[in-house]
Amino acid sequence: MPHSTSAPRLGDLERVVMERLWEADQGEGATVREVFESLEKDREIAYTTVMTVLDRLAKKDLVTREREGRAWRYFPADTREALTAQTMRRTLDDMEVTDRRAALLHFLDGASSQEIADIKAALAEVEARVEAAEASPRGLRGRLRR
Amino acid sequence: MLPLALAGTAVVLVWLTPGLLARQAGLRHAPRAALVAWQAVSVGGVLAALFVAPAAVPMLVGRDHVSEHPVLVAVAGLVSAAVIARLLVSGHRVGTRIRAARARHREIVDIVADHDGTDVRVLQHPTATAYCIPGRSARVVLSQGVLDTLPEPELAAVLAHEKAHLRARHDLLLEFFTVLHESVPSVLRSHRALTEVRLLVEALADRAAVRRSGEVATARALVAIAQGRYPDEAMGAGTSAPVRMNLLAQGPNPTPAAAAYLIAALALVAPVALLAAAWT
Asked: How high is the pLDDT of residue B94?
């Protein structure tokens, strides 16, 4: 597959380009040329690559664009903070509950304050049991065998 | 009567058994065997539903030879095909939705999260959280909050838990049960299966965490992440946390595994035996 080698590289470039757009003056966005010129200082990159990356980002709805003469001016669709908050939420906005829980596997699916109190009490039990097992030589052997 | 017995078996396996099985809290001590039982019960239910029409054929043709009644055979085939079609449609719909959601989520994570060249991504967020995005290019996602608050052994437990999900493809298991859940007619649908399977999958991943860091570190990680939940999350009771904690508190107990395997065997043998009996 030809894209399998270039995809990770493009993925990294997407990050870099998004960062440039976020750094660009608030609300002013940037043209392909402006992004290209700012990237060119740090790395070897082709103008067309920047164009491709911005185009991909637009297709993913991560950037919006407006015509400016014959070129496009690109704007981040969301702030970095808003996107991060979106990935932190257990739920995705436009999904049914059953789907969400099959799509992402969270370490913990949340806990109410009563449950937090309960699991703290249970933690003390776990600690006591393991401590007791380690204290008795028989228990220690049992643990080592496991 | 055998077709009726098969229809009854289908109803029992799809509708009654999930409730009974979910109440056997002891099975949670053997999550792997319990998951086998749940899968066998589900597959057995589907098989029973598939077999109702084929089992009715010998009864309806009486003493005639089957080949004398091609229409009857065709109708029986169509009824079973309808069951299969329902499953396939549901499978396609669920699979497409889940994959689209994951792909979208992964796109955003890859844009905002930091990484060190592995499949672990770090989100710049103070809340302690950890999850994985399963699939073809899987990711384990940690927040800066979880890196800052959890000491090394607890962090290792969390990572071992998420990697166990990815390695054992727990996502496929959850997808399978989501598909079944959707394809069952809504009057017969039970949330218990899906809820219990989710819990068992977590309990199984917790075992990987215990193997890596021990019970105490795993339990502490659960408490730390439970306390770090973001305030916008108005959680009702009934999450997996208390059950998983109790499993850790009670320690390992492998005895229920045999019972679970017995249930699994029964659930699979019953529909096949009934169909075989209808044709002899």
From this structure: 92
What pLDDT was estimated at residue B123?
95
B92 touches chain A (CB under 8 A): no
Tell whether B235 lies on the interface with A, counting CB pairs under 8 A.
Answer: yes
DSSP state of A146: -
Q: Distance (Å) from the C-alpha of residue B273 to the closest C-alpha of chain A?
A: 34
Q: Which residues contact B74 (CB under 8 A, 6 or more apart)?
A: none
Residue A11 phi, psi (nearest 5): -60, -45
Tell me if B171 and A83 make a contact (CB, 8 A cut-off). Answer: no
Pairwise CB contact (< 8 Å): B229 & A60: no
Which pair of tokens denotes residue B131? 């999850």
In which order are the strands placed within the sheet that holds B130-133? A105-106, B130-133, B139-143, B120-123, B114-115
Q: Give the count of domains, chain B.
A: 1
Of A11, A115, A130, the CB nearest to B239: A115
Kindly tell me the sign of the dihedral angle through the C-alpha atoms of B138, B143, B144, B147: negative
CATH number for A3-77: choose from 3.40.50.150, 1.10.10.10, 3.30.1050.10, 3.30.70.260. Answer: 1.10.10.10
B240 touches chain A (CB under 8 A): yes
Residue B119 in contact with partner chain A when CB distance is under 8 A: no
- Here the ipTM equals 0.87
* Cβ pair B111:A85 closer than 8 A: no
Q: What is the pLDDT of residue B90?
A: 93
pLDDT in tens, A22-76: 988 777 889 999 999 999 888 888 999 999 999 999 999 999 999 988 889 999 9
- Domain residue ranges in chain A: 3-77, 113-145
Q: What is the pTM of this model?
A: 0.88
DSSP structural state of residue A31: E
Low-confidence ranges of chain B (pLDDT < 70): 229-238
Q: What is the dihedral of CA B182, B188, B193, B194, to 10 degrees?
A: 30
Chain B residues whose beta carbon lies within 8 Å of the beta carbon of residue A125: 249
Compute the count of residue pairs across chains A and B with CB atoms less than 8 Å apart.
168
Residues of A within 8 A of B201 (CB-CB) are 105
Which domain does B248 fall in, by range?
A: 2-278
